[in-house]
Amino acid sequence: MTLSPAFPCNQCGACCRLVSLAQETQFLDRGDGACRHYDDQNRLCTIYDTRPIVCQVDKQFLLNYQQTYSWQEFINVNRIACLELEKYPLTLNSAYNVHCERQAPITKE
Ligand code: SF4
């Protein structure tokens, strides 16, 4: 099933750099708060095609949240989390130089 619209990921990498902040992703922590599969240089996931379901917003929705939220509501909730992560100080690993583009504010349908 293809969900529409696509999740508006701006590929800032904040969720991959801050896996230690969420209980669901702490198992990915390489020791400095970032995911052990995150490529710091290229700012990409090195296991993208086989990344855990917790990293696949579409599958997470279909498996665990479609009884609770509409797809658009799930996008909105996750975008709020994205914006919070993007604001998070990069003190966990100051070597990162991440550019996070701000998107339009989320409005509830
Ligand atoms: S597995 Fe990939 S997508 Fe998931 S947090 Fe790690 S780097 Fe990011």
Strand order of the largest sheet: 1-2
Contiguous low-pLDDT stretches (5 residues minimum) are: 92-109
Helix content: 25-40%
Mean pLDDT: 84
The biggest beta sheet reads: 2 strands, antiparallel
The structure class reads: mainly alpha
The unique ligands bound to this protein are: iron/sulfur cluster
Q: What is the radius of gyration computed over CA atoms, rounded to a whole number of angstroms?
A: 14 Å
Topology as a string of helices (H) and strands (E): HEEHH
Q: In percent terms, what proportion of residues is strand?
A: under 5%
DSSP helical segment count: 3
Shape: globular
Number of strand segments: 2
Determine the N-to-C terminus distance.
23 Å
Question: Describe it for me?
Answer:
The chain is mainly alpha-helical. The chain has a domain at about 15-85. It has helices at about 15, 55-65, 70-85; strands at about 40, 45. A two-stranded antiparallel sheet has the order 1-2. The two termini are about 25 Å apart. Bound molecules: iron/sulfur cluster. Iron/sulfur cluster (SF4) binds next to loops.
Summarize the structure.
Helix content is 28%, strand content 4%.
Reconstruct the topology from this structure.
Elements: H1 14-17, E1 38-39, E2 44-45, H2 57-65, H3 71-87
Antiparallel strand pairs: 1-2
The structure holds iron/sulfur cluster.
